[in-house]
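Hello again,

I reread your note about wanting to compare the complex against the isolated chains. To keep things tidy I'm splitting this into two emails, and this first one only covers the full assembly. Below are the input lines as submitted, including protein chains and any nucleic acid or small-molecule components. They are followed by the predicted structure of everything together. The single-chain runs will come separately.
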Amino acid sequence: MSFPWAEHYTPKNPVMKWVDERLPLPRFVYNAVGAGYPVPRNLNYFWNFGVLAGVALVIQLVTGIILAMHYAANGGVAFDSVEHIMRDVNSGWLLRYAHANGASFFFIIVYIHIFRGLFYGSYKAPREMVWLLGVVIFLLMMATAFMGYVLPWGQMSFWGAQVITGLFAAIPVVGEPIQTWLLGGFAPGNAALNRFFSLHYLLPFVIAGVIILHIWALHIPGSSNPTGVEVKGPQDTVPFHPYYTAKDGFGVGVFMIIFALVLFFAPNAMGHPDNYIPANPMSTPAHIVPEWYFWPFYAILRAFTMDLSIPFTGIVIIPAKLLGVMAMFASILLLFFLPWIDTSPVRSGKYRPLFKKFFILLGIDVLILGYCGGAPAEEPYVMISQIAAAYYFAHFLIILPIIASFERPDPLPGSITEAVLAKSGHKTGDAALAAAE
Amino acid sequence: MVRFLGALVGLFFSGILVLSFINGAIAVAPVLSEHGHLVAPTVEHEFHKHPKKVAWSFDGPFGHYDKAQLQRGFQVYTEVCSACHSLHQVSFRSLSDLGYSEAEVKAIAKARQVPDVDPKTGEPATRPGMPADKFPLVYPNDVAARAANNNAIPPDLSLIAKSRHDGANYVHSLLTGFTSQQGYKNEKGEELLKKFPDAKTPEGGHFNPYFANLNLAMAPPLTAEGQVTYGPGQPKPTVDQMAQDVSAFLMWTAEPKMEARKSTGIAVVVFLLFATVLAWMSYQNIWANKEH
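Full-complex prediction:
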């Protein structure tokens, strides 16, 4: 789009010409996802996940809108209306399982998408805005998913709503009024269920809006690529269509196969059995856990077991619960500052030997946090999550700025084309070597 | 500036976490030296058992319900469980999935009284069920359920096989797992009442190591072979057989669309494999002359 060699739209069909003169929508599509958008030729499969996230959102929208036709957001009948969908609505079981598992898959995709960005430095100039909007989308997704999980009005729905809105109660002075205000009562009830349903229907469209901004911002500098070296000329790019539409088509196929395997053969594997028990304010489940995609953050929340107090006086400055809430929000909000925290001029982690090691450590760290977040709040999980959470903050806020200043990066290729040819040259070299032997 | 403030925030959170860890380690040290574990062992942790595995006809991607088994399970539910447990998500009409004819479904429904209003007086009344009705509740409300059951509410069984971990196996193990607490040992050979003398089953409770907290209010419901009389050509109604049959039936009540789900899934996956191979070939074809 912004590249001078990008192909300009010339309508071939007279109807398209007529439309384009009055509303340049054909031109817009052509420049956004057509042959008019040049994309680096060396993108690997990790670059499929943006399109996959879009597919996942569409699955959620379509199944969600139909589910809303059959669901009743009332504390007295919500649980039964979900069972009505499962038993009596034509293909209702398919819609509901697709929606519930679709949420999980949306998060799997988005987590891979985020880690792709973290490794290849996609957050760095000139793509900071793409990254910032991405973090906004992530936050909106978390809010949407949380409220969606409340709607079936099972035990985990109810107690999850209680625990998560209870986080706001940790805020000094105004905390409890805020929780009451959020829930529309002193405990989750009909008022909370209704507003969560309303917002759960609204937020996906807000997400869709921010996605448009996210893609718009992406199209100004164009996609990054695994080398992190900027596009230098037409030889470095291929038109989005047909090259990446074809590659994304294959990626979507693979994604749909994995999604179908879980959806049709293990639809409850990622859910919690307790949510098939109707909400009961009088009976607290033994272990209240959110959905798996919140587990790393839940582990950070629960890792704070000690009040911040003045030693030997017993005066509490910040209670443990508030510290946990602050840390949990900080763990996501710090991503907003990442473009200015990591100052290494080298974009791609591929050429940063030291960064690469810490990045792998971060990946393992987040998996450990996830495991601990799903486990009961007892030892050794709490102690493990304390160390893992400490590393999480240290990684982003201390280690990244330090390694940026003294790491010696590997030599970068001169251009994308050079990197591509070097790679394929290697291959022929290896083949020749093998043939000689 | 951002980096400086960020580092301070990082030091703050990481520092508190490390202190909390040390604090936790100090707190845990005496527990560790006393028990050899980080957590003081609980009776549930040491003596709770995971469900036994049963080879179900509905296991695996090609699994099907065994209709004869579901009918036997329904018989066990009707003759034993339904005295206390409702099935209120299930409609009588859906029993045709078990292989019952329309007339049989009508007869099953008719044998049960469902709540309604008297068409003449408008007073609450009951009438014989119809296929469109759902299984009626056993107790009018939770208070009545508690009053009749030593202060415990018998849960509705419609979703029991999905609301418990490893549901069908769990139901089977629970039904066959009642045993005497006296002299009960776990796999390590430790005797429960010697290790936890305070954990004696309370008055009116029944010991069952498959139940989460080991004691439940329900008395063993299946106690003797032949408690339910199966029709000709059916297996012998041993306690284990009856427990398996009713577990399979409750899996069906929880997941009545399982067969449609699995057969749809196979068609969908076959289609997707085909489509994805085509997508792969077109991807390879389009990129054939492009190094990348």
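For quick reference: Chain B has a mean pLDDT of 92.

B.
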